[in-house]
Amino acid sequence: MKYTEEHEWLRAEDDLIVVGITEHAAEQLGDIVFVELPEVGTTVSKDDECVVIESVKAASDILAPLDGEIVEVNAALVDNPGAVNDDPLGDAWFFKIKPDDLSQMDDYLSEAQYKDMIA
Fold first, then answer.
1. How far apart (Å, rounded) are the C-alpha atoms in residues 56 and 40?
2. pTM of the full predicted structure?
3. CA gap 35, 11 in Å, rounded
4. Which tens digit of pLDDT belongs to each residue from 56-84?
């Protein structure tokens, strides 16, 4: 698993990358009350806004970590956005992307580097 400085996690799953937010991000946001997901089939570029999440504290955008195509979204989050607080590293992933270039993953942090960053 890799991590971004924007508190997203990226997990390789076959030729796809699953994207969610870290426990740290979920804690900082507080209770999440709304999630807007991208459309399946959307082509995104790195750093495009993909997901909007709103909590009792703030609204935040999740950026595309890689160039590619959104191939699946976690529609369950629309009806149950609080799942992000309950299981941010598991069932509460946001989307799966088919990357144009997997080498972009090399730009991201290891778990140890991420933990150092948030310490």
1. 27
2. 0.95
3. 20
4. 998 999 999 999 999 999 999 999 999 99
Specify the pairing of strand 49-55 against strand 32-36: antiparallel
Domain layout of the chain by residue ranges:
2-101
Radius of gyration from C-alpha coordinates of the chain: 13
Give the burial class of 18: count Cβ atoms within 10 A of its Cβ; 0-12 exposed, 13-18 middle, 19 or more buried: middle
Q: Tell me the C-alpha distance between 118 and 51, whole Å.
A: 22
Q: Domain 2-101 carries which CATH code?
A: 2.40.50.100
Q: Bridge partners of 18?
A: 11, 96
Mean pLDDT (the chain) is 96
Written as one letter, the residue type at 20 is G
pLDDT given for residue 114 in this prediction? 98
CA nearest to 9, candidates 84, 101, 103:
84
What pLDDT, on the 0 to 100 scale, is given for residue 110? 97
